[in-house]
């Protein structure tokens, strides 16, 4: 089986790294493409042994499972570009937040009558094979197609199927979740440093504390509230600290965060559905490059314009 | 030592106020001690009328209570107690079991004011003892042994939860449960007010609020599950409960309640020092 990534940014890099480390896929069976070869992740992918190309069409042709790993506003342009090359055998997996299965199927149906589409929401820790992934299958994706994706994603963490209408909530929780954790870890380390620990040690210990706690929770039948109680000896240090967290509304802040991320995802989806995202919101150079490759958007031009002549001075 | 059958026990109360009244109602409800075996003293008849209605005997003489009882509950106001104990001290014997309900008076103080060999225990009840749903903790003095502790526990379990604890927990119990009852009343009032705001008549809202608290507490006690788990069980994804809980968390309810327990406990400690 070969896997392709349209887009060679953080997500493609994380997944490619995860798959190869897990041994489910050899690097040479992975292709990634992007018009922007300056991305730092591009050299990372190359070093891994992944086939890198600037041609999205090449990626499609050489893949069975095709991940759309671009930012949500770019998705429509990508679909227009590679639509003609999508065949019935392809499993198109969109990882874009807020982009619905129906919007993808609608775009592809002009080219392919029964496109297999799966929508997934994963997160960056796939890079260390501790990702959290959910997926929902589209109209023409079979059970086996879902299982195939599940197998792939399970190699890099937890993966389960869900109803599509839950995916925005998942985005708010585990999609954005690592950012909340990084913020917490930074602050915990600050606390350690304030109380006299060297920074590196503080970071290491903070991360290990959260890792250990998460592992305990995942392996335990007990409620997190019970596990918390188990740490709090009467009148001890921990309960004093927890009181501070409660006073600061720690819990409600986290609830607010998950809610905000989920709501924003829905907003963006809504805007996208109404095609309200202005081209200005999309990095201008990227859009130009995408447009150049996209036949449906092409301005009359006799020959294909090479991307290299439009490149910036770098490299 | 004489084996103590509850039905043969002579129980006395020095002071006949609300807390003492709660305990005696519990005792009588449980049928452990006949009312005629109970004698209470108070300076005026104001409180004693209610006791007579229950079938208890009454007097205005504290010494009579001590003379005629084996188990003597001290239930006066804190500032009165030293004077009362000075009066009673000559009549207290080795057969007596003295149990103090007096807030803020330590076992050390009680033992200082009573003969050195006296069996002393200190108890902190709470108001719902009146309806046999109280929470009580007690501690032993130096001369009170297992027999006295067992007797007290078996007698008072009729009023609710009764546990022996180290004396240092007694002030915490005040903050948690003694005063805690008031926190619950406040919460119940607020719940009902919310319902009234949304259009429900007040009386109905109050009854439902109370029943809600009762039901939730009963589930906690009977299932033995962690409250966080029970809370989760009520929260359907995206449903009404989780929306409401979010509001409570925004208001830092948890921290505020912790602050309340802390404040009451600290105040109890401070008052005991006075």
Automatic annotation (TrEMBL), chain A:
Leader sequence segment: 1-26
Keyword Oxidoreductase: yes
Record domain Pyrroline-5-carboxylate reductase dimerisation: where: 164-268
Residue stretches spanning the membrane: none
Pfam families: F420_oxidored, P5CR_dimer
Protein name: Pyrroline-5-carboxylate reductase
SUPFAM superfamilies, alphabetized: 6-phosphogluconate dehydrogenase C-terminal domain-like, NAD(P)-binding Rossmann-fold domains
Protein keywords: Acetylation, Amino-acid biosynthesis, Mitochondrion, NADP, Oxidoreductase, Phosphoprotein, Proline biosynthesis, Signal
Catalysis performed (reactions): L-proline + NADP(+) = (S)-1-pyrroline-5-carboxylate + NADPH + 2 H(+); L-proline + NAD(+) = (S)-1-pyrroline-5-carboxylate + NADH + 2 H(+)
GO biological process: cellular response to oxidative stress; L-proline biosynthetic process
Residue positions binding NADPH: 56
Keyword NADP included in the entry's annotation: yes
EC number(s) given by UniProt: 1.5.1.2
Main location: mitochondrion
GO MF annotations in UniProt: pyrroline-5-carboxylate reductase activity
Source organism phylogeny: Eukaryota, Metazoa, Chordata, Craniata, Vertebrata
One Gene Ontology cellular component annotation held by this UniProt entry: mitochondrion
Positions that bind NADP(+): 6-11, 34, 69-72, 95-97
Subcellular location: Mitochondrion
Stretches assigned to the Pyrroline-5-carboxylate reductase catalytic N-terminal domain: 3-98
Pathway terms, separated by semicolons: Amino-acid biosynthesis; L-proline biosynthesis; L-proline from L-glutamate 5-semialdehyde: step 1/1
UniProtKB/TrEMBL annotation, chain B:
InterPro entries from the UniProt entry: 6-PGluconate_DH-like_C_sf (IPR008927), NAD(P)-bd_dom_sf (IPR036291), P5C_Rdtase_cat_N (IPR028939), P5CR-like_CS (IPR053790), P5CR_dimer (IPR029036), Pyrroline-COOH_reductase (IPR000304)
Task performed by this protein: Oxidoreductase that catalyzes the last step in proline biosynthesis, which corresponds to the reduction of pyrroline-5-carboxylate (P5C) to L-proline using NAD(P)H. Proline is synthesized from either glutamate or ornithine; both are converted to P5C, and then to proline via pyrroline-5-carboxylate reductases (PYCRs). PYCR3 is exclusively linked to the biosynthesis of proline from ornithine.
Pfam family, one: P5CR_dimer
A cellular component annotation (GO) from this entry: cytoplasm
The organism of origin for this protein: Machaerirhynchus nigripectus
Enzyme class per UniProt: oxidoreductase
Quaternary state and interactors: Homodecamer; composed of 5 homodimers.
Domain Pyrroline-5-carboxylate reductase catalytic N-terminal positions: 11-104
Descriptive protein name: Pyrroline-5-carboxylate reductase
Main location class: cytoplasm
Any one GO MF annotation of this record: pyrroline-5-carboxylate reductase activity
EC number: 1.5.1.2
List of residues binding NADPH: 62
Catalytic reaction(s) noted: L-proline + NADP(+) = (S)-1-pyrroline-5-carboxylate + NADPH + 2 H(+); L-proline + NAD(+) = (S)-1-pyrroline-5-carboxylate + NADH + 2 H(+)
Protein family: Belongs to the pyrroline-5-carboxylate reductase family.
């Amino acid at each position: 089986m070969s896997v392709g990534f349209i887009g060679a940014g953080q997500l493609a890099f994380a997944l490619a790294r995860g798959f190869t480390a897990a041994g489910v896929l050899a690097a040479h069976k992975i292709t990634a493409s992007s018009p922007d070869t300056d991305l730092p992740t591009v050299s990372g992918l190359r070093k891994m042994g992944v086939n890198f190309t600037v041609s999205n069409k090449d990626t499609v042709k050489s893949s069975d499972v095709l991940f759309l790993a671009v930012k949500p506003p770019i998705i429509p342009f990508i679909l227009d570009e590679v639509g003609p090359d999508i065949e019935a055998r392809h499993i198109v997996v969109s990882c874009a937040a807020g982009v619905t299965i129906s919007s993808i199927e609608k775009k592809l149906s002009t080219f392919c009558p029964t496109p297999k589409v799966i929508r997934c929401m994963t997160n960056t820790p796939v890079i260390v094979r501790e990702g959290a992934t959910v997926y929902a299958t589209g109209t023409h994706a079979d059970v086996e197609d879902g299982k195939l994706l599940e197998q792939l994603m399970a190699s890099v963490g937890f993966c389960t199927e869900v109803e599509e209408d839950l995916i925005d909530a998942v985005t708010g929780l585990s999609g954005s979740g690592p950012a909340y954790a990084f913020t917490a870890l930074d602050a915990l380390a600050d606390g350690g440093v304030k109380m006299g620990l060297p920074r590196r040690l503080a970071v290491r210990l903070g991360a290990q504390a959260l890792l250990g706690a998460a592992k305990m929770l995942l392996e335990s039948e007990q409620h997190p509230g019970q596990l918390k109680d188990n740490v709090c000896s009467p009148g001890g240090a921990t309960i004093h600290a927890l009181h501070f967290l409660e006073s600061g509304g720690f819990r409600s802040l986290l609830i607010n965060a998950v809610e905000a991320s989920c709501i924003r995802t829905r907003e963006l989806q809504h805007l996208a559905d109404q095609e309200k995202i202005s081209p200005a919101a999309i990095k201008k150079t990227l859009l130009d490059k995408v447009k150049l490759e996209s036949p449906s958007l092409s301005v009359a031009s006799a020959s294909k314009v090479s991307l290299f002549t439009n490149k910036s001075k770098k490299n | 030592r004489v084996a103590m059958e509850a039905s043969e026990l002579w129980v006395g109360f020095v002071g006949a106020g609300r807390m003492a009244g709660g305990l005696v109602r519990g005792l009588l409800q449980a049928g452990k001690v006949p009312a005629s075996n109970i004698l209470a003293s108070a300076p005026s008849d104001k409180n004693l009328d209610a006791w007579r209605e229950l079938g208890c005997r009454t007097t205005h003489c504290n010494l009579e209570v001590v003379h005629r009882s084996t188990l003597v509950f001290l239930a006066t106001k804190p500032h009165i107690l030293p004077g009362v104990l000075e009066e009673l001290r000559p009549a207290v014997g080795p057969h007596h079991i003295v149990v103090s309900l007096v807030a803020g008076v330590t076992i050390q103080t009680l033992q200082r004011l009573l003969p050195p060999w006296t069996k002393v225990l200190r108890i902190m009840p709470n108001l719902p003892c009146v309806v046999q749903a109280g929470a009580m903790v007690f501690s032993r003095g130096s001369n009170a042994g297992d027999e006295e502790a067992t007797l007290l526990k078996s007698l008072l379990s009729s009023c609710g939860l009764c546990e022996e604890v180290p004396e240092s927990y007694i002030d915490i119990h005040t903050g948690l449960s003694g005063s805690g009852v008031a926190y619950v009343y406040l919460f119940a009032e607020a719940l009902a007010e919310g319902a009234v705001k949304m259009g429900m008549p007040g009386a109905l809202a109050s009854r439902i609020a109370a029943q809600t608290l009762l039901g939730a507490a009963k589930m906690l006690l009977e299932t033995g599950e962690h409250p966080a788990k029970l809370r989760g069980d009520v929260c359907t994804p995206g449903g009404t409960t989780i929306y409401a809980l979010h509001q409570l968390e925004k208001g830092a309810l948890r921290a505020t309640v912790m602050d309340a327990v802390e404040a009451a406990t600290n105040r109890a400690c401070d008052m005991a020092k006075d």
